[in-house]
Amino acid sequence: MFLRNLSYTELTSTIEFLRKEMVSCGLKDGFTNEKTIQISQLLDTHIAQYHVNKVSDISTFSHTS
Length: 65
Prior knowledge:
The protein is built from 2 helices and no strands. It is mainly α. The chain has a domain at about 10-50. The termini are far apart. The model has no long low-confidence stretch (mean pLDDT about 90).
């Protein structure tokens, strides 16, 4: 899945929002419900992007020091 280039603030806000949505949906419809799983997968994508950005920033920082 392609994510537009989100700032850390936008990314962390989106991750927190999706986490709450996933839990809410899971409690309401079940944690194996298709909608809950879709939200979980979207959340995974955003978390992975967060980590890629973090590693990229660390790498960039270490090469400029």
